[in-house]
Structure formats: structure tokens, C-alpha cells
Design goal:
- The chain is an alpha+beta fold.
- Helices cover about 65% and strands about 5% of the residues.
- The chain is built from six helices and four strands, in the order ααββαββααα.
- A four-stranded antiparallel sheet has the order 1-2-3-4.
- A hairpin with a 3-residue loop joins strand 1 and strand 2.
- Helix 1 packs across helix 2.
- The longest helix has about 50 residues.
- The radius of gyration is 25 Å and the shape is extended.
- The two termini are about 35 Å apart.
Length: about 230
Amino acid sequence: MRDGASPYYQPLITEEEHKILLDRHLQANPTSLRAYKTKDEYDELKLIPNKFLRFEGEHGMIFELPNPKRHRSALANLKVSNPNASLKDIVKPHQFNYKLTGMKVNDKQFSISGEELIILISDFFKKHFQINENNYEKYREFQINEYDKTIKNINEKRRKLQLQMNHISSLMENYARNFNRQNNPDELQKNVFQADIKKYQDQIDYLQKEIGKLAVSHRNAILELD
């Protein structure tokens, strides 16, 4: 349950159903799809979330990529030889910033580059985190606990997706069975039937892709624990 939510709150749709509806919306609305992809692309570049860094505890700093057209042009050229390339293969830490919002410092817009931020974070860890055998064992215990949580979460998501896929498959099979019981359906009925079956199959295909993604996440989680 969400923090602060009413104990009587019940979601209208499941998370998996939301993903299906979002996917359909993005396919039908190119503008939304471009904005959604841009958000994802920038997320993979970010060192920290927006407004995680705060000036004087109040004003947050947000990610900024100057001159994105130049980087997208370079990415388009790279994709000729590497179709799976993304912005993270093009943009280096010194090429993006975190800028202060809501105020200026000495009448100037304050920002810090990703490269400078990496140095600050590195210096902070060097100063405040000393590695010894005891700390390392604590870290390993934490890592194993996080691994267990990750695997449990992946398996639970996979179970829910599989249940939903089984449910949709059952609905499609029952729908087809009832249609085939009809005597001599006309062309309109056949067309409606084929369109409905395609909708069912589209949902199943989407869920299969999501399960496939979870299989990759499961494998990666296992390989990362070394």
C-alpha cells in the first residue's frame, strides 16, 4: 500500500495492465513516445536522481544535457555500425551538468559537471569510508541480502506476469470456443472475431516480452554476485 493511502484503496488496474495500456498509448502517440524515450535516455546518463543534490537544503539540482542535437547526430552515426548504441556511448561525464534550480549564486546560474561530481563523490567516499576486513564482510552480507531481495522480487513479478498471461490465454481460448459454436457466422462477425483474437494475442506477446526481460534480469543478478 502506498504511504498515506486509505486502507480502503483498491487500484483499478494492475501494474502489468498499466504497462500494456502505456505501451499502446506510446505506439499510438509518437509525441509521447519521443518524450518517454528521451526521459529513459537521460536516466541512463544520470549519476544521481534529479534534486538529490540540494543547495542549502532547499533548492534541488537537476540533470541538463547541453546541445542534445549534436549528441543525437553523433549517436545516429554510431548506430550505423552499432545498432544497439545509446546516448551513454556518446556522452561523457564532462559533457552534462547538474544545474541549480530556483535561485542563482552571485547572480549566476550555478551548475556542476558530471566529471566534477564524480570527483566530489570519490573524495567523499575516500574520506568517510575506510575499507577493512570487517567492513568488507558487512558489505558482502549486505550484498547477499540485496541479491536475495532482487531474486525474490524478480520471481514474484514473473509469477504475476505468468498468471496474467495464463488468464488472457484462457479468455482467448474460451472466446474462440464460443465463436466456433456459432452456425455460419457472417463476414462481419468473422472480422470482429479476428480483431479480438489479435488483441488477445498482442497482450500475450507483450507479457511474454516482459517475462523475457525478467529472465535477463534474473541471469544478470546471478552473474553479478561474485
